[in-house]
Design a protein that fits this description.
Structural class: mainly alpha
Order of helices and strands: EEEEEHHHHHHHHHHHHHHHHHH
Radius of gyration: 25 Å
Shape: globular
Number of helices: 18
Strand order of the largest sheet: 3-4-5
Bound molecules: coenzyme A
Helix content: 40-55%
Largest sheet: 3 strands, antiparallel
């Protein structure tokens, strides 16, 4: 009868150690028992970039990267994208169950009634340079909310946590819209409680002098689906940042600012902006093979391709590709879509991409849709941060309430000098330098 254990022999000492295997995992701390001498620190595991280390137990999001499967709380992303609103999915991701009508109405009411920003936020916004990137404005402004809500630092109080969760989900679109209007020099638009989450966001972005903003229902639904697809993605770079910063019991506003900072990098949420820049660099179909050749030669990457976890088609990219047709039906065709489709077709037949299992990821087509809806590329990562706030907060809450979690503190392998050197006083160092 095979036992659910791992036996390891240390060839330095000939000793064998046996560790339990649970959920296909061994505990790294067990390896500390492996010592050459009694006063050794014990064996560490070296895993730069956490390529094979589980940092937590989580029951929020399931990904099977080899099969291209994504589920929130056990529901396939395809079903959620077809049948739910974003706030319904947000409820599911946060509370672990789909709401009934009464729960949903109450939840929507609560979020809708927290969308206003403190009036001083306007003055804060005025401090940014006219050309500030909207993502920088979003990150700084959400961090500044920690000063507006100092009581948010009581993170062990569940009621207090829930209040901050509602505020953050409600206010992220308001901050995002304000940063957008600031960059255009337009007056800010207040939230409209009659509208849905995405319609209200569009209202705050684009309402001009009309008495009531009416969003195009196809575009509003497309944005809603994009928000659903971006709501969570388990332990990615920004979520890990959220958990790491949150593990110090930091204010959730500062945790979200940290997570959003991680998201802004071009290898993470910034990739959708890079995809559009890449497509701009390819003038026509005939230029695609040469572009791919350059990528294969190591001159840049095919942005929107490849993923740490997905070694198959990203299921979110497949859904986004489907809604692209509906959006372009309203906005007119985007010639860049043809270039993107052809890039994908050629890449998926190319040995370089096949061998490395590089497929389009969520960012490959999302930028094209955002652009068609009317967003500038600088806003794309902001559009990622708004729905991902839900995932960050669900993961933060899970981390805070997990009795196994502690302040995040990885180990290192020290490679620098030890304290065997004599400290040379500054005057002596100057004399040495003068001799050269
Ligand atoms: C997402 C990403 C950071 C994952 O990186 P990773 O898991 O660390 O994978 P690696 O960087 O080790 O890449 C593995 C191999 O594929 C290649 N590769 C990965 N993504 C590539 C891309 N987009 N274009 C060309 N080659 C790529 C790497 O050069 C490497 O090749 P090598 O083994 O010959 O050195 C990476 O695929 C990437 O940079 N993609 C483009 C940015 C992007 O779209 N990000 C959004 C993610 S949702």
């Amino acid at each position: 009868m095979p036992s659910n254990t791992l036996s390891v022999t240390d060839d330095r000492t000939g000793r064998t150690y046996t560790f339990p295997i649970e959920d296909g995992t061994v505990r790294a701390a067990d390896f500390r028992r492996i010592k050459e001498k009694d006063d050794d620190f014990g064996l560490m595991l070296y895993d730069p970039a956490f390529m094979n280390t589980a940092s937590c137990r989580s029951n929020i999001t399931f990904i099977d990267g080899d099969r291209g499967i994504l589920e929130y709380r056990g529901y396939p992303i395809e079903q959620l994208a077809e049948h739910c609103t974003f706030l319904e999915v947000a409820y599911l991701v946060l509370f672990g169950k789909l709401p009934n009508s009464k729960e949903l109405d109450n939840w929507v009411f609560e979020i809708t009634h927290h969308t206003m920003l403190h009036e001083s936020t306007k003055t804060f916004m005025e401090g940014f340079r006219y050309d500030a990137h909207p993502m920088s404005m979003l990150i700084s402004t959400v961090a500044a909310l920690a000063s507006v809500y100092p009581q948010a630092s009581h993170v062990q109080d569940p009621d207090n946590r829930l209040l901050q969760i509602k505020r953050l989900i409600a206010k992220m679109p308001s901050i995002a819209a304000m940063s957008y209007r600031r960059s255009l020099g337009f007056p800010y638009v207040y939230p409209d409680n009659d509208l849905s989450y995405t319609e209200n966001f569009m209202n705050m972005l684009w309402k001009m002098v009309e008495p009531k903003y009416a969003a195009n229902p196809i575009l509003a639904r497309a944005l809603e689906v994009l928000f659903i697809l971006h709501a969570d993605h388990e332990q990615n770079c920004s979520t890990s940042a959220m958990r790491a910063v949150g593990s110090a019991l930091t204010s959730p506003y500062l945790c979200v600012a940290s997570a959003a900072s991680a998201l802004s990098g071009p290898l993470h949420g910034g990739a959708n902006e890079e995809v559009i820049r890449m497509l701009d660099e390819i003038p026509n179909m005939a230029a695609i093979p040469a572009y791919i050749q350059n990528v294969k030669a190591g001159k840049g990457r095919l942005m929107g391709f490849g993923h740490r976890v997905y070694k198959n088609y990203d299921p979110r990219a497949a859904l986004i590709k489907k809604i692209a047709d509906q959006v372009f039906g309203v906005t007119g065709p985007n010639p860049k879509l043809d270039i993107a489709l052809e890039l994908e077709r050629i890449a998926l037949q190319d040995e370089y991409f096949i061998a490395r299992k590089l497929y389009p990821n969520v960012d490959f087509y999302s930028g094209l849709i955002y652009q068609a809806i009317g967003f500038k590329p600088e806003m794309f990562t902001v559009l990622f941060a708004i729905p991902r706030t839900v995932g960050w907060l669900a993961q933060w809450q899970e981390m805070i309430t997990d009795p196994e979690q502690k302040i995040t503190r990885p180990r290192q392998i020290y490679t620098g000098p030890r304290a065997l050197k004599r400290l040379v006083p500054l005057a002596e160092r100057d004399m040495e330098a003068a001799k050269v």
